[in-house]
Amino acid sequence: MAENEKKVISEEMIFLDKELTSQEDILKFIVKSAFENDYVEEEDKLLTAVKKRENEISTAIGYLIAIPHGKTEAVKSPFISMVRTSEKVKWTEDNDEMVRLVFLIGVPEKSEGKLHLKFISQLSKKLLDDSFRGKLLNKKNKNEIFEQLSSIEI
Question: How far apart are CA 56 and CA 2, in angstroms?
Fold first, then answer.
């Protein structure tokens, strides 16, 4: 791994029991964190890409999970961030889908073809497992969550 290459899943991008109460707040929080952790050059470009995708079709997939994603040249290194909210959040105004686990995927525009789709596929497979999902909802230790997410083949 090159010295400046970052891990796709890192402890610094896992956030537990955040008191965020809307999709907008959650997305802004994650994008700001990605910028602060040097995954993103321009917050606005990633946020715009993620919102554009979200407006096409909601990324809430059931089971209290949403997987918003964006592909833009503003992303320096591909990443998957996880936020677990302290309370259920209504993901979209026109849908009653509630979420607590949000996985934002950011990939560079010039990444290999369908990199974001590969991430979504691998993540979704694991999240369909009741035990895996239950641990993500209940574990209190960020390191344990990181270890669990690191088991995903990406």
Answer: 36
Strands 95-108 and 69-72: parallel
The model's pLDDT over 74-129, given as tens digits with 9 standing for 90+, comes to 999 999 999 999 999 999 988 889 999 999 999 998 876 677 788 889 899 999 99
Biggest CA pair distance of the chain: 45
The position carrying tokens 């964006």 is: 70
- The length of the chain is 154
Answering whether pTM is above 0.90, one says yes
The percent of the chain in helix, strand and coil, each rounded to the nearest 5, is 40, 30, 30
**Structure tokens that stand for 67 in this block:** 């997987």
CA distances (Å), origin 106, targets 19, 131, 151: 22, 26, 19
Phi, psi of 137 (to 5 degrees): -80, -25
- Strands 60-62 and 65-66, bridge-based pairing: antiparallel
